[in-house]
Design brief:
This protein is an alpha+beta fold. It has six helices and nine strands; from the N terminus they run ββαβαβααβαββββα. The strands form two sheets. It has a seven-stranded mixed beta sheet. Strands 6-7 form a two-stranded antiparallel ribbon. It is globular and about 55 Å long. This is Alkyl hydroperoxide reductase C. It comes from Pseudoalteromonas porphyrae.
């Protein structure tokens, strides 16, 4: 049995990322103050991973407009991220930071390390500006994620963060009605 990380705080970390042609140092302090997505994937130069990372790249401008930063993370090094970025058309369109986690410290702190392989599961974590994890999605290695659905989930998380007492029903989209839990709704939905 595992304990959920929902509403827990981002753990301290220091890492090097490949970002827009440079190697940059990042820590938890760089993440705080804005909505963030940590997008873990198994490895560079693989098969499902570039489809997911490319999908996120295609939705990155929309996420940025929503005040969200994306950090992709694998147990590869930042050097490997650069090599992949330089040789793949799909990965070459990425403009969000690609964090290298060769020690697995960040991957373990999010509970997505496959110890026997030294790789990460496909884990997505959305954090509010206070660094609290609000959304977790974890997939087996062969199952790719949808950036479109990720955007919708972030929109819902941002909505409920600013609308106390409201909740978003299944498949909620911005502009649609929400629910205000109350005794009057019990058994009526």
């Amino acid at each position: 049995m595992s304990t959920s990380l929902i509403n827990t705080k981002l753990q301290p970390f220091n890492a090097t990322a490949y970002h827009n042609g440079d190697f940059v140092e990042l820590s938890e302090k760089d993440v705080l103050g804005k909505w963030s997505i940590f997008f873990f994937y198994p490895a560079d130069f693989t098969f499902v991973c570039p489809t997911e990372l490319g999908d996120v790249a295609d939705h990155y401008a929309q996420l940025q407009e929503m005040g969200v930063e994306v950090y992709s993370v694998s147990t590869d090094t930042h050097f490997t991220h650069k090599a992949w970025h330089d040789t793949s058309d799909t990965i070459g369109k990425i403009t969000y930071p690609m964090i290298g986690d060769p020690t697995g410290r960040i991957t373990r702190s999010f509970g997505v390390m496959i110890e026997e392989e030294g790789l990460a599961l496909r884990g997505t974590f959305v954090m509010n500006p206070e660094g609290e994890i609000k959304i977790i999605e974890t997939h087996d290695l062969g199952i790719g994620r949808s950036a479109k659905e990720l955007v919708r989930k972030v929109q819902a998380a941002q909505y409920i963060a600013t609308h106390d007492g409201e909740v978003c029903p299944a498949s909620w989209q911005p502009g649609e009605e929400t629910l205000a839990p109350s005794l009057d709704l019990v058994g009526k939905i």
